Each structure stands twice: as C-alpha cells, then as structure tokens.
UniProtKB/TrEMBL annotation:
InterPro entries: LOR (IPR007612), LOR_sf (IPR038595), Tubby-like_C (IPR025659)
Family per record: Belongs to the LOR family.
Protein name: LURP-one-related family protein
Listed Pfam families: LOR (PF04525)
Annotated organism of origin: Acutalibacter muris
Length: 156
C-alpha cells in the first residue's frame, strides 16, 4: 500500500494531505497552535483519529503519539554527531535511515520491513512516499513520519 504525504504550501501551521495511490484522500493532518508541534490526524470523513504531540522542555526532541485520546507510544531523537538516530517506543518497532534523513525504513520487532519512506526531491513542499506493507500499520507509520518531519522542521 502506497501513500503520498504532501505538505500544504500556504499554511500558517503544519498542514498535510495524505493520498492513496489512486489520488483519493487517505488522511488530512492539521497543525494546532500550541507550545511545540501538535498535529491532529483526520480520516476522509473529518473525524479525528490520531495526534502527534511534541513534548517540550526535554533534552532531546521527543514526540508522543495518540490513537484517539489514548497514548500508544513515542519517538525520540538520540544524541549523535553525524547520522541522526531515533528511538521508537511502540510495539518493538525500530527505524533505520540514511544520513540525509530523506529515506528510511520502519522495522518490526523481528527486523521485518513494515514501511519504507522516501522523500521526493524537487518539490515546492515536503513530499514523501510511504510504502506500507500492511494497511493496518499505515496510520502508525504516518504518525512517526510526521514526528520526524516536525523534528527536522524545528531543527532547520
């Protein structure tokens, strides 16, 4: 299952549209005014289904993910000098990526590939392709991609 993650060009707060391969809307993401990033995820009918929220006043960037109102996990950046590294606290998931932070892979607890994320270059806004192996993991993979993109935006 492939998803296209595209940031909206003219938006005061972080806003993204996520599309299926056929061009139909899979999710809409809207940034909320808050201290730190807070991204609300909506299904095509407009119902809020998830949240990615930055924890403030932490040594290294950390984001919590919520399914509805229920906390389900987090992602935090680890201290490194050259290659960025993230630690995911969710179902034994791991992340491996390249030094550019444009291409990375989400792995399951046994090292199985859950999703492959790649940034498309030469677009006006951030655009990623998410190739998710199981549709059941699509929302979770999206949440972690949103957190990494928000962390990169804060750093830049």
């Amino acid at each position: 299952m492939k998803l296209l993650f595209k940031q909206r060009m003219f938006s005061w707060l972080d806003s993204y549209d996520i599309y299926y391969e056929d061009g139909s809307v899979a999710y809409t993401v809207k940034g909320q005014l808050s201290w730190g990033h807070c991204l609300k995820i909506f299904d095509p009918e407009g119902y809020e289904i998830g949240t990615v929220k930055e924890k403030v006043l932490t040594w290294m960037p950390r984001f919590e993910v919520y399914l509805g109102e229920q906390y389900i996990g987090s992602i935090s950046k680890e201290f490194t000098f050259f290659k960025p590294k993230y630690n995911i606290d969710f179902n034994g998931w791991q992340i491996q990526g390249d030094w550019t932070e444009w291409d990375y892979t989400l792995l399951g607890p046994m090292g199985d590939v859950l999703a492959v994320i790649s940034k498309e270059l030469w677009n006006w806004t951030d655009t990623y392709t998410l190739d998710v192996m199981s549709p059941d993991d699509a929302l979770y993979a999206l949440m972690f991609v949103l957190a990494i993109d928000a962390e990169k935006c804060s750093r830049d």
